[in-house]
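Propose amino acids for all 147 sites.
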């Protein structure tokens, strides 16, 4: 099983999820576990393989929305952690600029840190599942037993 650095994968996921749709992307080599990022708007210093976007060797790292880690996760957090805010959270995500208002709401109820911890744990779990589904093992390069 090919090992991919969880830290690199998390960074690539954040990068691919940032910007406008299709602006940024990230890929993992199915042969080596190496992680590559690309951007249509920002010139990056890292060199990437020429066939990165066309070869079956490279799998696109999923984005926040592809893993249901956007609005759906925020609503799930409210349901599980602050059920008294469910109605407000649901209405926030019906308009533009929702994520900022969501964080302001959580901050005003002093649960913003709980959200960040919940989001981080759910993101890591989702990326680990993605790794398993794609025959990768999430690990830290240089750790015992990791190539």
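Proposal:
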């Amino acid at each position: 099983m090919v090992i991919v650095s969880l830290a690199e994968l998390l960074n690539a996921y954040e990068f691919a999820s940032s910007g406008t749709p299709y602006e940024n992307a990230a890929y993992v080599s199915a042969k080596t576990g190496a992680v590559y990022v690309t951007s249509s708007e920002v010139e990056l210093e890292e060199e990437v393989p020429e066939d990165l976007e066309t070869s079956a060797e490279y799998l696109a790292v999923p984005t926040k929305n592809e893993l249901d880690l956007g609005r759906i996760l925020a609503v799930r957090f409210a349901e599980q952690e602050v059920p008294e805010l469910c109605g407000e959270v649901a209405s926030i995500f019906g308009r533009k600029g929702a994520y900022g208002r969501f964080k302001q709401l959580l901050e005003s109820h002093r649960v913003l840190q709980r959200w960040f911890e919940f989001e981080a744990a759910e993101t890591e779990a989702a990326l680990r599942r993605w790794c398993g589904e794609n025959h990768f093992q999430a690990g830290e390069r240089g750790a015992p037993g990791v190539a």
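Residues 2-62 form one domain. The first strand starts at residue 2 and ends at 5.
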